[in-house]
Specification:
This is GRAM domain-containing protein. InterPro entries: BAGP1-like, GRAM, PH-like_dom_sf. It holds the Pfam family GRAM. It comes from Nymphaea colorata (pocket water lily). This protein has one domain (2-38). By secondary structure, it is an all-beta fold. It is built from no helices and 4 strands.
Length: 39
């Protein structure tokens, strides 16, 4: 069950804008940039 969801960015070779999802046991980041998905 997702407890919170935030708009955020992950910096690697460039900035990936996406969403961070927080549950009791996991922190997940999801971004879809140029049809390349990051999970």
């Amino acid at each position: 069950v997702v407890e919170h969801s935030y708009s955020c960015a992950l910096e690697r070779s460039f900035l990936y804008h996406g969403r961070m999802y927080i549950s009791a046991w996991h922190i997940c980041f999801h971004s879809n940039v140029f049809s390349k998905q990051m999970k």
